[in-house]
Amino acid sequence: MTINKQKDGAALTLAVEGRLDTITAPELEAALGEELDGVEALTFDFSGLEYISSAGLRVLLSAQKQMNRQGTMKVTGVGEVIMEIFEVTGFSDILTIE
Amino acid sequence: MKEITVRAETAALDRVTDFVNGELEALGCPMKTLMQIDLAVEEIFVNIASYAYGPEGGDAVIRVDARDGGVCVTFEDRGIPFDPTAREDPDRSADALERPIGGLGIFLTKQFMDEIAYEYRDGKNILTFSKKTGVA
Description:
CATH architecture of chain B: 2-Layer Sandwich
CATH class of chain B: Alpha Beta
Helix content of chain A: 40-55%
Number of strands of chain B: 5
Radius of gyration of chain A: 12 Å
CATH superfamily of the domain at 49-98 in chain A: STAS domain
Oligomer: heterodimer
Distance between the termini of chain B: 17 Å
Largest interface: A-B, 23 and 26 residues
Number of helices of chain A: 4
Largest sheet of chain A: 5 strands, mixed
Structural class of chain B: alpha+beta
């Protein structure tokens, strides 16, 4: 997994590529821990994301909870395989997917 | 049928996934099905790695039987008896933000695999799931 960060004032975009699984999810969690302070608009660009497991879903859920308190969060570039995972878990109802 | 024995720890996940994918490649399985099988493998293996054994740890055996347009994956461990399939599915009517996150992995496994079965036999947890791969 690679994470490309782009910060523009209070807007942060994290482009996550590869596999977001039990091994790599802690890296994304750490990146959010470092970067999320003062962020009002968080975007996850998942156009390069190939795979997500429940470990990755946990990180998204905790990011959503934090952004509900301090701003907005959206997810872009979601492919078919990952969309299906969002749908069966109900994550498609709580995430803003564009 | 091929099998691999690894330490039941999350650090071994890549080895387990590579092993299963290696067996599936020969089937020419569609990418989406492959991802769903990877997901089930991860959720079940991580569950074993996290909960089966105490601090002393232990082993897990993973078997893959890929044939006749389908795949069957079996996990065995000698940890505490635990039936993940007995867990209730998450309450979809509850606000997803407030739903307990635990159980999501086994829920995904049940959703994406065709069959999942658990038994405790000879001191071993034995969990098997199967999925049609659509390639005869």
